[in-house]
Amino acid sequence: MFSSSSNDRRSLPFTFVLAAVRRLTCDSDEQVPIERERADVYRLLLVLQGTPEVKFEGQGRMAEPGTCLLISPGSEAVITGNGRACAACLMSFTAIHAGADDKALQSILERLSQGTRLPASVLNEFAGLWEKGDARQDGLIQLRWNRDFLSLLLLLLEQSALEKQSRDPESSVGQTIDYLQNHYHRVITVQQLADMAQLPRWQYLRIFKKLTGTKPSSYLIHLRIEQAKIRLSGTDEQVWEVAHRVGFSDEHYFNRRFKLLTGVSPGQYARIYNPKHSAPREQEAVHPSPAALSRIVYDDGGTLGDLLALDISPVGANLRFCDNDPLLGKVQLTREIGFPLSPDKVRELNPDLVLLSRYGSDKYPELSAIAPTIVVNEYAPMYRRLQKLGEVLGIRERADRWLNAYDLRRERMWQKLQARKADDETATVLFYDGNLKLYLLHRQRGLAKLLYHPLGFRMDERIQRLRPVRGHYYISITPERLDQYAVGDRLFVFVRPDLRVSAVLSELACCSSWVRLPAVRSGKVHCLEAFWNLDDALTSQLALEHFPALWT
Predict the structure, then answer these.
(1) Residue ranges of the Fe/B12 periplasmic-binding domain (predicted)?
(2) Which of 109, 173, 464, 526 has the fewest CB atoms in 10 Å of its CB?
(3) Is the Cβ–Cβ distance between 348 and 328 less than 8 Å?
C-alpha cells in the first residue's frame, strides 16, 4: 500500500492557461490596435511575417519575423506595417499560482517580457496548430492547445537562457548596423537600436563608436546621403523626392547636409553625374534686370515676411497679417493693395515688378500690362520661396546666406535644448478655432518646421501617414476622434487671434476626450498665439529667437 506524508508532498506553484488565440494581419501602412484586456490577462505576440513596429507601454520597437513579445495586463499596443504586409499571432493567457509566494511566477514573466526570437518557421508551425479545430466546442482540443502553448513557453524560456549565456554585445550591435543599412529611410532612434541590441544606451553607444568610428545619428546621415547620391545619379526623381525617399523630412536640412558631405548641392550633383541632366535645358523665363528693381509690389500677405527678412520693403503689398510690432516696423512706407488685390491701386504705385501669388494669378493679364509680373508659389517650402526671390531679384547669395544662418541657428538651438526633452519625444501641432473646433496641422510649415527638426521632436508615425483633402494643409478633428489625431507626448495648440488662451483652456477642459489625452494629463500642452505659426521667413526667424521661452 502507498502511504502519504506531508513532507513528501510536491505542489505546482503556478501554471499558465491559454484563453484565446487570434491571428492579426495588417497592410503596409495599416495600424492594428491591440485593446486593453482585463487585469489578469497577459498577451504573447508572435511576429510571423514582415517587420512591423510594435508600440506599447510608451515604447516602440521594430520586430523581425520570429520575435516574441509579452504584453502585460492593462496595457494597450499598436502594430504598424511600416511599408510591408505583416502577420502575427496573439495569444491571451492567464497565470494561476498557489499560495502567497509567487516569486517563481514573476521570474518567468520577467524573462518572457525581455523578448526573444525563434525561427519564424517554428512560430508559424505553432500558429498552424492553433488553427485546427474549435477549442470552444471540444475540450480535448482545448487541452491540446494548452499543451502546445506550454511547449512554446518552455522553448522561449530555454532560448532566452541560451541567449543570455552566449550573447556577444558587439555581435548584437553589429546586427543593428545591418538593420540600419536596410532600413535607413525609416524614423529610427538610438533608444530603439539599443533595445534591439538588448543593451543599455551608454554601452550601445560605446560599442557602436568602436565598430564604426562615429555615433549612430552621423552614421545614419552618411547612409542616407550615399543612397541619395545613387538616386540623384541614376533616376529622374526631383531633389525633394530623393530627400523623402532616403529618410529626410526636411528638404533644406537634406540640402545642407548633402553639401557639407559632398561639396556640392544635390541639384549640382545630379547635373554632374546624371546623364539625363546633361541634355540642353529649356530657355528659362527672362526676368527684369535686378538693378532696375526699386519699386516692388508683393501680393501674398502670408509670406510677405520672406521679402522683409531679406531687407527689401515693397512699395505695395497685402498687409492683412501685418498687425504685429515686428512686421509693422518694416512696412511703414508700404501701401495696402487690398485683398484680393486691386489692379488700380497697383497702377497708382508705378511698380518696376509685381510678384503675384497663385491666389491672385487670375489678375496676371491685367497686371503684366502695368509692369513685369512673376507668379510665385506661396505654398512652396520657405527655403524654395527664398531661393526663388534671390533668383528673381538678383540677390541669390543674400538669400543663401540667410537660409544657411537660419539652419545653423536652428541646429544650435536644439543642441542646447536636448536636456529638456526625451530622445524620442513626439509632438503634435493643432489649431483651435473656438467652439471645440480643432484642426491638425501636420505639414512642415510654420512652427512645425522648427519642431520637427532632426534634433527636435518626432512626429508620431500615425500622423506621418495621414493625408489631408487635396489643397488643404490641415485635417478637421471632431471631439470623438481626438484620441486618434491629438497624439504625442506634447501638444502645441495655436489659438485664433481674438481668443484668450485661458478661455480656450477652460473650453477644452469641458471636453471629456480632451482631458483624457496623455499630453493633457501630463501637463504638456502649450497654447500659442496663431501669429507664431506663420510660415514666412521673418516670423520663422522670430520664432527661432523666442521658442525656448514659448516652450515652457
Answers:
(1) 295-552
(2) 464
(3) no
Residue 282: CB atoms within 10 Å: 6
- Taking only the tens place, the pLDDT of each residue in 305-344 is 899 999 888 998 888 877 766 677 788 888 998 888 899 9
- Alpha carbons 345 and 496: distance in angstroms, whole number: 30
Cα→Cα distances 529→126, 154, 230, 543, Å: 56, 58, 43, 11
Give start and end residues of each alpha helix (H) in 291-381. Answer: 304-309, 325-328, 343-348, 364-368
Give the pLDDT mean for 514-525: 89
493 Cβ partners below 8 Å, 6+ apart?
430, 431, 432, 504, 525, 526, 527, 528
Q: Distances from the Cα of 34 to the Cαs of 60, 77, 79, in angstroms?
A: 14, 5, 8
What pairing do the DSSP bridges indicate for beta strands 316-317 and 490-495?
unpaired
Task: Give percent of the chain above pLDDT 90.
Answer: 10
Q: What is the separation, in whole angstroms, between the first and last Cα of the chain?
A: 80
**Which residue has 501641432 as its cell numbers?**
429
What's the number of CA atoms in the CB half-sphere (13 Å) around residue 230? Answer: 8
| Distance separating alpha carbons of residues 445 and 239, to the nearest angstrom | 18
Do residues 26 and 20 make contact, with C-beta atoms less than 8 angstroms apart?
Answer: no
pTM as predicted: 0.59
Task: Judge if the upstream peptide bond of residue 65 is cis by omega within 30 degrees of 0.
Answer: no
Q: From the centroid of its chain, how far is CA 461?
A: 5
Sheet architecture: strand order including 475-477: 475-477, 438-441, 427-432, 490-495, 525-529
Whole-angstrom CA distances from 20 to 91, 123, 134, 235 are 6, 16, 11, 50
Residues with Cβ < 8 Å from 12, sequence gap 6 or more?
98
Q: Which residues contact 221 (CB under 8 A, 6 or more apart)?
A: 257, 261
Give the amino acid at 448.
A
Question: For every residue of 387-450, which 3-state class applies, written as one string?
Answer: HHHHHHHCCHHHHHHHHHHHHHHHHHHHHHHHHHCCCCCEEEEEEECCCCCEEEECCCCCCHHH
Q: Which residues contact 208 (CB under 8 A, 6 or more apart)?
A: 173, 176, 177, 193, 215, 216, 219
Q: Which sign does the torsion angle of CA 190, 403, 383, 485 carry?
A: positive
Q: What pLDDT, in 10s, does the model give residues 446-478?
A: 888 889 888 888 888 777 766 554 445 678 888
pLDDT for res 5: 46
